[in-house]
Structures are given as structure tokens and as C-alpha cells.
Write a structure and sequence with these properties.
The complex is a heterodimer of chains A (308) and B (257).
Chain A (H helix, E strand, L loop, with lengths): L10 E3 L2 E3 L3 E3 L22 E6 L12 E4 L2 E4 L8 H7 L1 H5 L5 E5 L4 H13 L5 E5 L3 E2 L5 E2 L4 H14 L3 E5 L7 H10 L4 E4 L3 E4 L1 E2 L4 E2 L5 E5 L4 H14 L4 E4 L5 H10 L3 E4 L2 H4 L3 H16 L14
Chain B lengths: L3 E13 L2 E8 L11 E5 L10 E9 L2 E7 L3 H7 L6 E8 L11 E7 L3 H11 L5 E6 L8 H6 L5 E4 L6 E2 L2 H11 L7 E6 L2 H14 L2 E5 L15 E4 L2 E4 L6 E3 L6
Parallel strand pairs in B: 7-8, 7-11, 8-9, 9-10, 11-12
Antiparallel strand pairs in B: 1-2, 1-6, 2-5, 3-4, 3-6, 4-5, 12-15, 13-14
Classes of the chains: A alpha/beta (308), B alpha/beta (257).
């Protein structure tokens, strides 16, 4: 048995030291303030905020979400308040929290990614950047950046040159070879990869015979995607040397530990925050309890520990 | 007072087929909800259904409260089978609620179907102001809480699709006729409504035509209830607005249909 004091939960993501491996997933935690009522934000490993772009984005028409078995489809359309607004109105609060803030961002061209990264890197209180590459590329007929290894390499290299901050690349799972995409990101200078983003999906109302989302296609998240996410984290862990941040359907400490055994250095809770606003604390407490009963001294000791 | 709390079920009764009234006793003190506020109810700890059910406050009973719901899918079906003594985990009260500072002389309330749930809460609070309550449903059987409304001294003006109670047809047409006949000074009225989309749409047109001010409670698919998922937006003249945060109650003139 390891006692609580001797349990080491700290993990390194690039230059960033996290006090524990439990993060929030972008787009499921707002800008943190909405959850301060339910949990002590200081206890989180990191807060990852809703994805930002240079200019505010209005998002897609409703209906934007639909519940599916053990999961949900969303097509929010990257609605956000824009980087300037975030820096002015949301960062001051986040600076009062003793938890690193990771800002998720995206662009519709490489130039926009670079400008966004530059702007965020200058802001006081931004500890790391997470780039979303599962969004459409204006200069390539709106195809998705992160499904083409060459485009991924180009956009990650360009952002790497624009920031000194720890750079996390959030991979799209809608690819054939996720390990290849992780290697491409690593070679282009990423400090870590995070996965999975949502899996594209669709649901149809059989009475009206219409898609249940106004956008027709959406992204699937929640426990339904967890086995796919664990598999992809395991494949990425084998493909790269940089840390892998695992997410996809985590709603319990057991889920989180599964990701860590698959090779995740840290984990993020996403859709789970919608089910229970204090779920991150259950996950964190449960990881500590598990380590105690299993006699695990450092969380890093079980990273990638699945025995195949 | 946390907005995440547990409540035990005092009663969970079927009023008519598929329509239930649940009475809940919070296990800790909770914030008193305003009419138009709602709760996110976790019907189970299973992963399917995954999300909570948003249900508006129907009646506040000195710390206990009642919700009125219709069995529409898996979640509400599970909820309907819950027994007295069972514990539910609930988030709320959420949303903005109806504005309660009303300067106009007359108040018109319009409820369609299950829209009676929040309109009852509002009517109960405003009963001293003698509001005119218009209540439409598909059929007599689905007119809920009529005895309770009468007990409050609110004799609702009724319309049903099949004419089994009150006027045959839609409640907006009844209101339309009354406006044409009786209401000389329309600007001295305030309209509040909740109900199915076609009803609210027709009411919006009517309100616009007569320059009638008012508010409507809207519904949308919802995940978090806290404003973070951005899933529950509706289109307004100010852009997309979240039903769970800026709503569910919106000024009629701001809603874009």
C-alpha cells in the first residue's frame, strides 16, 4: 500500500508540468468559469478551454446535438467568442486559478492558424496551446486539415515556428492510420498529441426521414467511442516518443486508468462534464484510490503498462 | 446551496396516458426556482440514456417541488417507472425564468399541451393580477391540471383539436378573436406563452401584428444545461442564444422563426 503523500500524480506534457493527469476536453468545459460552482478548479491537472479562432464564429443552425446510444452527436460548428474577447473577458478569471490553462484553437487557413498561435502565445495566463486540426481548410475545398498527412505536416510546422509554448496537436480519429498522423505531428515539432476528437456520425429521424442534425453530419462523443479511443491511444503510444493525451468517453476513474495503461500520459474528460459537472473530481479521486490499493507510487509507472 | 443535489421521490403518478406528475423532496436546501426555470434530471446512473432530461418547474411546494412530464423516449420512460422513496440526482434551477416585474395592466397566459407545466407556475404566482389563461390541447384527456387551475381561481379558456372540451380548434385562433373583439388597448397587455412550436410561431405573428409585448419559453435539445456545450441554441435577432442560459424565456420580438 502506498500512502496518499507518497503517491506521485505529476506528469509532464512538453515543458508543462501538471499536478495530476486529469484535464478537461475542449468544448465541454466552456472557459472554466461555468464549472467553478461545482468543483475546485485548482484541483484539475489542466483546463482546456473551448476552441477559439481569430474572429468570433456564429456556429451551425440548430438542432446541433442529438443523443445516441451511450453517446451524443454534435455539430456546434466551432461557435466561439474569438481570441480577443477570450483574452479580455475570460483569461482574467482563469489567471486566478492555480491550474495551467491550455487554449484550444483553430483556423481556416495556415496563415490564420499562425496568427492565432502568435496572439495566444503573447497572452499572459496561457500555458500551452492545443491545435484542433479537425476543421475545414479554406484553400483546399474545405477538406479537413487533419486527415491529410502532408497538410497536417505543413500546418503543424508553421504553428511550431510561431510559438515557444508547449504545442499539443489534437488528432482527428477519422483517418485510416492514426499512428502515422501522430508521427507526422511529432516530426513537425509537436510537443504532444491529444486524441481522440469526435468520430463523424449521423442519425436519421425515421418518421420525418430527415437527418436529426441540421448540419446532417456531426461528431460522436461519449462512452460509445471509448474502445475506439483506447485503441488509437495505444497505437499512437507505440508510434511516437512525445506524450499522448487520451480522451474519448471517460466517465469514471476506471476509464481513465484504461487510457493510461494504453499509453496516455494524461487524460481528458469531455462529454462526461455534461452528465455530471463534478465528474472530473470523481475521476481524480478514483485514480488516487486505485493507486493506493494497487500500491502504485507514480502514475507514470503504469503508463503504457498494458501487457499484450 | 448547491445546484447539484439529490431528491427523493414523494410521488410519481400517471395523470393520463404518458403524462406524469412527479413530486420531489430535495435532500438538502435548494434555491427556490422561478417560473420558467428548469431542472436537469438524471433518470439513472446507466450510460444509456447518457444525458439528463431538462424539465421545467411546475409547482414549488415550500421546499418540495413538482415536475410535469410526458413519456417521449427512453429517459422519460425510465423516469415514469421510478417509485416513491427512489433518489434522483438533479441539477438546477437553471435558466433565466419569466420576468416577474410586469408593468402592464393585463396579463395573457397561453399554454399549449405540456406547456401548461411552466405556465401553471407562472399563473400561480400572478394569480392576484387576474391573468387571462388560454389553454389548448389535442383532446380533453390531455388537458392537465384543470382542477388545480380552477382551485387557484384561474378559469382557463380552453380549445381542443377535436372539440372534446372548450372550443374546437387551436387556442391561438381563440385569442385572435378575443383580441379583435375585446382588447381595445392592446399595449396595456403582456403575453406569456409556452407550447409547441407551431403555436408559438402563430402567437409571434399575432403579437407582431398587434404590437403585443411578451415572452415565450422555448425548448431545444440540450446536453449540459449550464451553457458550455452550445448545443441548445435558438436563432434570435441578437444571433444564436442558448436556451439553457440566455433562455429558456425570450422576448417575443427577439425570436427568429
Amino acid at each position: 500500500m502506498a500512502d496518499k503523500k507518497s503517491i506521485n500524480l505529476t506528469v509532464m506534457i512538453g515543458k508543462l508540468k501538471l499536478k495530476n493527469p486529469v484535464m478537461t476536453a475542449s468544448g465541454t468545459f466552456g472557459y472554466g468559469d461555468e464549472y467553478a460552482e461545482f468543483i475546485d478548479l485548482n484541483r484539475l491537472g489542466a483546463i482546456v478551454v473551448k476552441g477559439l479562432s481569430l474572429k468570433p464564429k456564429e456556429g451551425n443552425p440548430p438542432p446541433r446535438i442529438v443523443e445516441t446510444p451511450s453517446g451524443m452527436l454534435n455539430a456546434i460548428g466551432l461557435q466561439n467568442i474569438g481570441i480577443n474577447n477570450f483574452i479580455r473577458n475570460k483569461l482574467p478569471f482563469l489567471r486566478t486559478v492555480k491550474t495551467p490553462v491550455i487554449v484550444n484553437f483553430f483556423g481556416d487557413s495556415i496563415a490564420e492558424y499562425v496568427r492565432a498561435a502568435e496572439k495566444l502565445s503573447e497572452a499572459d495566463g496561457v500555458h500551452a496551446l492545443e491545435m484542433n486540426i479537425s476543421c475545414p481548410n479554406k484553400q483546399a475545398g474545405w477538406s479537413i486539415f487533419g486527415t491529410d498527412p502532408h497538410v497536417t505536416s505543413k500546418v503543424v510546422s508553421a504553428v511550431r515556428k510561431a510559438t515557444e509554448k508547449t504545442l499539443i496537436v489534437k488528432l482527428s480519429p477519422n483517418v485510416t492510420d492514426i499512428g502515422l498522423m501522430a508521427r507526422v505531428a511529432e516530426d513537425a515539432g509537436a510537443d504532444a498529441v491529444s486524441l481522440i476528437n469526435t468520430l463523424t456520425g449521423m442519425a436519421i429521424d425515421i418518421k420525418t426521414r430527415r437527418p436529426r442534425l441540421a448540419n446532417i453530419i456531426g461528431g460522436l462523443s461519449g462512452p460509445a467511442v471509448k474502445p475506439v479511443a483506447v485503441r488509437m491511444v495505444w497505437q499512437c503510444y507505440q508510434a511516437v516518443r512525445i506524450p499522448v493525451i487520451g480522451m474519448g468517453g471517460i466517465v469514471s476513474p476506471e476509464d481513465a486508468i484504461e487510457f493510461i495503461l494504453a499509453g496516455a500520459s494524461a487524460v481528458a474528460v469531455g462529454t462526461g462534464n455534461f452528465i455530471r459537472p463534478d465528474i472530473t473530481m470523481d475521476v481524480l479521486n478514483g485514480i488516487t484510490a486505485f493507486m493506493k490499493t494497487e500500491g502504485i507510487k507514480s502514475i507514470n509507472d503504469i503508463k503504457g503498462g498494458v501487457q499484450c | 446551496m448547491s445546484r447539484l443535489f439529490k431528491a427523493s421521490i414523494i410521488e410519481n403518478i400517471q395523470l393520463v396516458k404518458n403524462h406524469y406528475l412527479i413530486t420531489l423532496h430535495p435532500l438538502e436546501k435548494i434555491k427556490k426556482p422561478k417560473p420558467g426555470n428548469f431542472f436537469m434530471v438524471a433518470v439513472d446512473h446507466n450510460l444509456y440514456p447518457l444525458l439528463r432530461r431538462p424539465i421545467s418547474i411546475h409547482r414549488w411546494l415550500n421546499g418540495d417541488f413538482q415536475l410535469l412530464y410526458r413519456v417521449a423516449g427512453k429517459g422519460t420512460s425510465i423516469l415514469s417507472r421510478k417509485k416513491p422513496g427512489d433518489i434522483l440526482e438533479i441539477l438546477g434551477p437553471l435558466g433565466n425564468g419569466f420576468p416577474l416585474k410586469i408593468n402592464s395592466a393585463h396579463i395573457i397566459l397561453v399554454a399549449g399541451g405540456l406547456g401548461v407545466a411552466p405556465m401553471f407556475a407562472l399563473a400561480e404566482l400572478l394569480k392576484k393580477r387576474n391573468p387571462a389563461l388560454y389553454y389548448g390541447a389535442r383532446t380533453k384527456k390531455e388537458l392537465l391540471r384543470i382542477d388545480e387551475l380552477n382551485a387557484l381561481g384561474l378559469d382557463p379558456i380552453i380549445a381542443t383539436d377535436d372539440g372534446s372540451s372548450g372550443e374546437k380548434g387551436n387556442i391561438v385562433n381563440v385569442l385572435k378573436r378575443h383580441i379583435a373583439r375585446h382588447l381595445s388597448s392592446i399595449s396595456d397587455n403582456m403575453l406569456f406563452a409556452c407550447g409547441p412550436e407551431p403555436m408559438l410561431k402563430a402567437l409571434s405573428l399575432l403579437a407582431e401584428k398587434h404590437g403585443l409585448q411578451g415572452y415565450m419559453a422555448l425548448e431545444q435539445h440540450m446536453a449540459c444545461g449550464l451553457g458550455t456545450c452550445l448545443g441548445c441554441v435558438v436563432k434570435t435577432t441578437k444571433g444564436y442564444r442558448r436556451v439553457c442560459k440566455e433562455g429558456p424565456v425570450f422576448p417575443i420580438e427577439e425570436i427568429v422563426w
